[in-house]
Amino acid sequence: METYTAMRHFADSWGLLAMALFFVGVIAFTLRPGGKRAADEAASIPLKED
To answer: Taking the complete model, does pTM exceed 0.85, yes or no?
Structure first.
């Protein structure tokens, strides 16, 4: 039971911080100034003919 408690405390503190930073990073990566062109290119991939 001691391992469970230690992992629970880790998840409550550093795990939450890591997930929050990851979320902020994904949002910043998505909304960066040069992201629109890359997103438009990725969105048109299924529509391109070979």
So the answer is: no
